């Protein structure tokens, strides 16, 4: 049997012992939470298999849990809010968090086995991935080495056995659109972020559900997606829909940063917000509060999402499975000065 780099070792030992891979990982890393009899049985199987930790592996002796956190650029309110929630929970729970940044577009290019080995060799016990696109091979590599993974707002639909944490995006998208409909708007555009992002799809479907419920036909020209949830996407989307022969009187933007781009384009055209154009954002970040006018936005409990993701990961590390692989926290529509009834 191969040692060191073969992820099958842990899985084989776990199957022979009749336990989970995380339980074997606990024994290898001298962690608590395993009964004496089970620990002895696993240690015997490890010895028989000839498995040993890779050269230079740092076995934890401090009792502290170490996890990896991978996140894209930490410059928008969304990422900052989630990160603050993770770090605050980690500080209160004696958790060491190693933060690294990988551009979402390059996330899938990271070598799965090398990444998982480096985590295991350094004593880290799990991974939090924020708005990333985890590939099946990466997930399999982490699972084989007994490293649980929790993703926050993944860019792709996660497999059924991968735990994810986010907000009620569909309900938030519907609430935003219903707010605009309730004000009297009938020409409502949707400007989304990354087209295949799971959260973008959910917000779009909430928007479409609200239109259908109000018997307002959806218009393909009013639905636009960009490559990211940023200001540039808002600028490009606003130009496209505002140049239509019959432009919208309201725009639902899939993030506050997209909405900021819409505000900027409206200002450049002399379009008054909210008198001529109503705008709703999504995330409920400080950007929404500080814009002129302040943005009506669907607020996500970003810090709570970060804390919940870390708490869920710790449960997985301890061999506990969540009741559902998808955890969603409620959103709330916060009405501010960027929305009003349409003129006339």
Protein model, in words:
It is a single chain. With 344 residues, this protein is an alpha/beta fold. The chain folds into three domains: 8-49; 65-165 and 302-328, Response regulator (Rossmann fold), CATH 3.40.50; 169-300, 3-Layer(aba) Sandwich (Rossmann fold), CATH 3.40.50.2300. Helices cover 42% and strands 17% of the residues. The protein has twelve helices and twelve strands. A six-stranded parallel β-sheet has the order 2-1-3-4-5-11. The chain has a six-stranded mixed β-sheet with strand order 7-6-8-9-10-12, sandwiched between helices. Helix 1 packs across helix 3. The N and C termini lie far apart (77 Å).
